[in-house]
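Example record

One chain of 99 residues, shown exactly as stored in the release files.
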Amino acid sequence: MKINNFVPDSKIFDSIKFKDDLENEENVSFLDTLKEKLNEVNEKQIKAEDLTESFIKGEDVDIHDVMLQTEEAKMSLELAVQVRNKIVEAYQEITRMQL
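Predicted structure tokens for this chain:
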């Protein structure tokens, strides 16, 4: 049985940042990245709340959009909580280390 050679689509790899590309970018601290992502979570929460209020007021808002935005905001918040838990766990592990 002959298997055809797999030829990957090169467009898939265009969005991947390779090591050289990462070295050319500015150094971004972990704190800056964390703040940025928490702001994104906050924006999703606000957007979901605004959409829900619009739906309650009777404006022309599709219930599916309300549910999707609410679930996306909920999942983002749950992920943020899990990241926070891992950060706290790592901090506690570091403080337990003996030097």
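Notes: The CA atoms of residues 7 and 34 lie 38 Å apart.
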